[in-house]
Amino acid sequence: MKFDKNTILGLLFMLLLAFGFSWYSANEAAKEQEQTQENATPSPAPEQQAPQSQPAPQPTAAVITEPSGLNTDRYASLATSASQSRFELITLKNDKVSVQISTKGGHLHRATLNEFTKYGSEQHIELWDTTNTMMNLNWKNGKGETVQSSELYFEPNATQVDATSQKGEIRLRAKGVSDAQYMEWVYTLEPNSYQVQCQLNIVGLENEVFNSPLELDWKLLGHTNEKGLQTERSKSSIFFHTPGEDRDYLSETGNDSETLEVPLHWVDLKQNYFSVALISDNGFDKGAKLDVYVLQDSTSNKLYYAKLPLTTPKSNNAQLNFSYYLGPNSYEALAATNIEEFTNIIDYGWWIIGYVNKYAIRPLFEFLAEHIGTFSYGLIILIVTLLIKMLLFPITWKNFLSGAKMRVLKPEIDEINKKYEGKEAVEKQQATMALYRQTGVNPFAGCIPVLLQMPILYAMFRFFPAEITLRGKSFLWADDLAAYDSILDLSFNIPMYGSHVSGFTLLMAASTFLYSKMSMGSQPTMTQPGMPNMAVMMNIFSFMMIFFFNSMPAGLTMYYFTANMISIGQMWAIKKYFIDENAIRAKIEENKKKPKKKGGLASRIEEMQKAQQAKLDAQKSKLKKK
Fold first, then answer.
1. With contact defined as beta carbons under 8 Å apart, do 459 and 357 qualify?
2. What are the residues facing 171 on neighbouring strands?
3. Three-class SS state of 355
């Protein structure tokens, strides 16, 4: 293997760039975490600051009685509800989700997913930390004072409702001075659904509640539920949708915030494979403020804030309709809501990549899981890989055929390289292109099949980290195909690598190295002045994959390893049994005897090279005259 000056410089530049990026990322992450500690609990500006609500009590029993010290004058007709002190958690559940609603404020207190558990635990998924999560409905009374729903006590019509077999409903009402004045939350849940419908009725309080726009103030701290905290955080953020636009999102890699100048349809506090979303039938008004923070601890995912102005016309009998989605980010569950752009919470990739994953790869996985069984998703990944490689085989065949033609021409190309060694590069390029045109060989024919395969390769790179189907599924030593696998846990952290050794990543890197050696070993040397040796670059690429993929999902690295091994098998079989290089040589010799037509890409490149050479000759002539 030849290490010339340019190859060595290119290699050093790549290593310096990699380590420089790692250093920069680490410093930026440290700065963001420091800023998070200062900004994670931002307070309103002094002129906008609202009275602080009492901390949400954490009950040890179903009902707790508290002393009331509130100044209830601010609540006018609702003063009676503000002066009560009976706190209770009301349960609404079906077979998929169980929610608890607090009588203090009338908002959701806890949401538990009955079908999913935390990684390495039998504990069911809880979608937020109840001690650091709150929701408030804020408004101003007739005196301009801010009032918060979290200071009102709502009377429920039931303490527990089971919606497993039929629709369940819970009503919580904060009473006014008469039966004709009240604020009421109505929650309904259908069987087999992750969507909790929510209706807010404000009756007889037109002059007390609608002196300013109503605003929902939402703070949520997400739990860690997956293997690999950093990976989980990198797939978590606030996603949102404005009518008529594609879904959008805040940064997934650090702290971010945005104030929207347009109305908002829904907002989703995405936690990797799970979502807590609030959808408004009426829409949220412009001016919504969204914030996401990364905290410096090992127990929480991210901290989310959302301030959502409500579009509520002043009325003596106002009604607002919302719905909560509390469930997994599975395509079927999101699609069942019939909410615009909601399935795009799952980031399958942009444009054609997303279409391939949504309408080809995902249905294929579902079909195989349904007909083969879910006992081994490793087997399903193997079958998917085989089917994809079969589909791409015509392209692979074209690629190998192009490589065979180039191998046949290798002696003649080597002669051209030797003949023009030390001469102008343009002369060698012209001679090489003339040979291609004479023999009918297209040097770019091998590039086209590779480009055609790229959407599939990148689609799989996006599919495995996004697909919840593989979550919790084990294969061989991998205990979760949706997370990294580990054959050795280290007691220390290696920069850019991690504190574990991924077995599938090592196999993938080794198979990539072997495949590149087989595919490039017999190819003609096509190096140009100033360009590094491609064989060396492929070796470096194989090595760098160990670092880049070590924390990637085991399903992804297993797929790439399997695909490499199938490609190696195809290459060996095609070379041994299907490609006759003697026949190719005979065809090339026959092409040499045929008259050549002008035109084609090779001809145009040759003309460009001639023009370039003529320009260089003219410049040399001018220099000699001087």
1. yes
2. 186
3. helix
What is the pLDDT of the chain when averaged over all its residues? 81
pLDDT at residue 234, as a whole number: 92
Kindly state the percentage of the chain with pLDDT values over 90.
46
Read off the pLDDT of each residue in 299-303 and give the average, rounded to a whole number.
91
Tokens in use for 509? 């890197």
> What span, in angstroms and rounded, lies between the C-alpha atoms of 176 and 84?
12
Q: What is the pLDDT of residues 448-505, one digit of tens each?
A: 666 667 788 888 999 999 999 999 999 999 999 999 999 999 998 898 898 999 999 9
Q: How far is CA 390 from the centre of its chain?
A: 28
**Following DSSP, what letter does each residue of 204-224 receive, concatenated?**
S-HHHHTTS--EEEEEEEEEP
pLDDT tens sequence across 74-124: 788 888 888 776 789 999 999 999 999 999 999 999 999 999 999 989 999
**CB atoms closer than 10 angstroms to residue 178:** 9
Task: For residue 518, give the H/E element and its range.
Answer: helix 503-520
- What's residue 38's pLDDT? 47
Compute and round to an integer the Cα radius of gyration of the chain: 32
Are 279 and 266 in contact by the 8 Å Cβ rule? The answer is yes
- The token pair at 419 is 């003949």
Q: Tens digit of pLDDT for each residue in 426-435? A: 777 777 777 7
Instruction: Look at 621 and 517; give whichever has higher pLDDT.
Output: 517
Range with lowest mean pLDDT among 213-227, 313-327, 511-525: 511-525
Q: What is the pLDDT of residue 599?
A: 54
Give the separation between CA 134 and CA 129, rounded to whole angstroms: 10
Please give the C-alpha separations between residue 401 and each of 280, 480, 519, 570, in angstroms, as whole numbers: 58, 40, 12, 12
Which one-letter amino acid corresponds to residue 536? V
Distance CA 533, CA 305 (A): 51
DSSP E strands, 235-375: 236-241, 248-249, 256-259, 264-271, 274-284, 289-293, 300-309, 317-328
Asked if 267 and 250 count as a contact pair (C-beta separation under 8 A), the reply is: no
Q: At what angle do helices 5-39 and 534-548 cross, to 10 degrees?
A: 20
Of 4, 250, 275, nearest to 113 (Cα)?
A: 275
Residue 285 near residue 310 (C-beta atoms within 8 A): yes
Which residue in the block uniquely carries the two structure tokens 């002059």? 207
Lowest mean pLDDT of 26-30, 105-109, 152-156, 600-604, name the range: 26-30
Distance CA 123, CA 105 (A): 28
Amino acid at 605: I
Q: How many CB atoms lie within 10 A of CB 529?
A: 8
Q: For residues 622 and 626, give the distance between their C-alpha atoms in angstroms, rounded to a whole number.
A: 6
Distance CA 515, CA 609 (A): 34
Spatial contact of 14 and 540, defined as CB atoms under 8 Å apart? yes
What is the per-residue pLDDT for 600?
A: 56
Work out the number of other CB atoms within 10 angstroms of the CB of residue 292: 24
Give the pairing type, strands 160-162 and 86-93: parallel
Distance of CA 442 to the CA centre of its chain: 39
In whole angstroms, give the CA distance from residue 417 to residue 436: 14
3-state secondary structure string, 16-47?
Answer: HHHHHHHHHHHHHHHHHHHHHHHHCCCCCCHH
Q: Which residue has the tokens 């997370």?
A: 483
CA distance 472 to 300: 20
Q: Are 199 and 320 in contact (CB under 8 A)?
A: yes
- What number is the average pLDDT over the span 225-239? 93
